TrEMBL record:
Keywords linked to the UniProt accession: Aminopeptidase, Hydrolase, Metal-binding, Metalloprotease, Protease, Zinc
GO terms for MF: alanyl aminopeptidase activity; metalloaminopeptidase activity; peptide binding; zinc ion binding
Region (Disordered): 521-561
Gene designation: pepN
The keyword Hydrolase appears for this protein: yes
Domain spans labelled Aminopeptidase N-like N-terminal: 95-196
Keyword Manganese: no
Record protein name field: Aminopeptidase N
Family annotation (CDD domains): M1_APN (cd09602)
Domain called Peptidase M1 membrane alanine aminopeptidase: residue spans: 245-456
Reaction(s) the record says it catalyses: Release of an N-terminal amino acid, Xaa-|-Yaa- from a peptide, amide or arylamide. Xaa is preferably Ala, but may be most amino acids including Pro (slow action). When a terminal hydrophobic residue is followed by a prolyl residue, the two may be released as an intact Xaa-Pro dipeptide
Amino acid sequence: MGASLTREEAATRAEQIRVEDYRVTVDLSGAEDPANTTFGSEVTVRFTAEEGAETFIDFIHESVSSVELNGEVLDVDDVVEGSRIRLPELGQANELRVVGRALYSRSGEGLHRYIDPQDGEVYIYTQYEPADCRRVFAVFEQPDLKAVYRFTVITPAPWLAASNGELLSSEATDSCDVPGSVTHEFAPTQRISSYITTILAGPYTRVTDEWSGTGSQGEALTVPLALYCRRALAEHMDAEELFALTKQGLDFFPQLFGVAYPWGKYEQAFVPEYNLGAMENPGMVTFTEDYLFPSGATRAQLAGRANTLMHEMSHMWFGDLVTMRWWDDLWLKESFAEFMGAYACVHATQYTDAWVTFALARKEWAYRQDQLPTTHPVVADIVDLEAARQNFDGITYAKGASVLKQLVAFVGEDAFMDACRAYFRRFAFGNTDLDDFLGVLDEACDHDVRAWADLWLRTTGVPVLAVTAPDDDAAQPVRASLTQDASPLRPHVLTAGSYARELGGEAVVKTARVEVRVPAEPGTTELAGLAPRSGPGGTRGVGASSGEGPDGSDTSEPSEGAGAVLLLNDTDLTYCLAHPDPRSLAGLVEIVGDIADPLARAVAHSQLWAAVRDGRLCPREYVLMVARRCTAETHAAILTTVLDHARQALGQYVPVTYRTTVRRTLLDALGASMLAAEPGSDAQLILARAFAREAARDGKYARPIQEWLGGAQSVPGLQLTPQLRWTMLTAVTATGHSTVSALEREHAQDPTRDGHLGYLEAAAAMRSDRSKEQAWERIVSGTLSNDELSATVSGFQLAAPAVLHRYEDSYFEHLSGWWAGHSMEIATRMVRGLYPRAVDAQAASSDPAAAAAEHPVVRATRDWLGQNADAPAALRRIVTELGDDAERAVRLQVMCLSR
């Protein structure tokens, strides 16, 4: 790993210098030969400084051949110190030239080279955030040293190249590693930060279009558009849909923000082995090529792509035009882009239910992250670049966006958008921090936003709003109140609704709703104006019909009608863990799948999942509820997320004593619902995927899967796409019902990237001890790319607990070595992916926390942390989080056994 720049070092350097521009030449002419592991890198940078000052420039290199400062050739051995090049005795005006060689990446960090297994073509792209630009050329790697960049990229003759700026020329050259190549010259950028510069090169397919609109002064404005992808995926690139979304965004954001699109062209590239969903490089946004969906997509997946596209486009203003000064204020771009992605989908596209997915899936990411011992404020304390890498997390993204949604409810949407417009006008092409945004927000509204920010942005933890509702006469209006339990206390603006079945119908509808304002002070808040418990659907008490056998089997009978339940935060305005009163919690178990409004249904599902993780709802009961009442869900995003939660609960929180029976109940429900679903529907595909993944844990279902794979049986309307075939094949392999030769035959028929990764996962899932040993050896060898590593780890973990236990000691013995010997991306995938997952409690206990603390995996985790107090903070953070997850799993299993 490269040396980590500290916040103090960055602040000192920012005071010393101002960067004018870079001229960067990257020689990729030898990229087609896999034996060439390096590429040529040359940069000339002009900057001003304090006379006589000394600073450094960053460069993670393979070698440095020349450093020339203000016409003087410096001694490389004297000034090159690891990933830094010392720059002594600066003048007021300086010109620095650094020539060297850098390494091609297989980890998705820096300049990544991908060799297509299908046709052998080579593709190049870059990914820098937060600080991997220094892996490509020498640069002052910090966001507040903005500069103008001009790129020259040398490639093999057949290739195209792209960057942030417009392509000016492409001419033949012999002045490079491989004569007969082409030099591509690009127009200079505007002043931007180093982490959002980019290079793309290779035999990509390119499709073009343009957007026409108006600038900030009403003038006509045309923005050239382009899409890129690998040739092998060209048929799957839905240019019509992607361009339509792009144009909708370009219609929407300039009008919303009051500032015209500032970056000239708008190009988007879909690239392989990408570590992120996307990256907001101005003029050239990069996306994971998984968004091209070669094996088909549900509406939820298409909506997710649209959300990401809008998220990245909003970054053209939040992050690119105005950039955080240091990574403490990463939220100033990521929280805002997360919010704006959903907001733009709702207001500018066909995907108007974006807040539904946000309420259930994205916020759950935030809730989990905020409950870990490593939680941090939205405005974080980022001491160095290593810490910055760890904070691209659920707090910075989803919690931050949730808090912004609450801020909009607090100050009003008009005031919030007015503040955004002022922010862009005042700080365009500059750098900011929290105080700068609060300053414009202060001007736009009459609320005390600084006090609000102190409570919401500078504190940690999830607020808990607990509802108390006496079990009164069901015909009387509910007399409920809520208490804010968690410290620190925060102000909330939210709604609460009562929900019951329609008279004579199955749908559960809202019968009343009240707006609630909770002050940031101790005490209770009354919820007045809600409906009677009986509701229009009858007076029968909720939860009365639920039940299960001693082995976890489902013995319940459907309820004839459920009374009204109270659903707090039903419009999802605030960020909190809502604890329903006991009667409402039991009622939600009965009626959640029938709530008519998708947003309220998503909120209800979120509260049930939170109740599982907090120990207020038995995990076994939850999985049975999903099997009994939720597999008929038609909203693709809700169904996908709820099934993911059920599978997580089954694998981690349901005690092993009950797991087989409960798993088979769930699998039987998935299979029956898949057969009953509308042929070719999203629901059918989602159910099939979940069935195949969970069947990897139970050989009972191998035969029907083999019959589907072989064509002996079929599910009407269900297409066995290559991706689904590999999921099914992995399932039968993991349960001992396939062979190496069968995997090789499938791989020969599917030589694509997805086929390659599917083969790696399935091969690692083979049950034999030798197969697991070989998978482990491949994982730790350092020879796999980022995605190859993850696929192999995923297959390796599909094993009986007794097999995985053998690797636990080795895991903890090698943690520090893995971290030191690999890039952060690869090391993180190894540390997270190989953590012992077979965490099973064996007996009930009156003290679940004590039982968890004594579990061998938890104990080994704590021992490692105690013995490695000086390990890198980022590594300790990951291990701490994994240990906390393991403790929660054991604790919940023990609680379930005790019931």
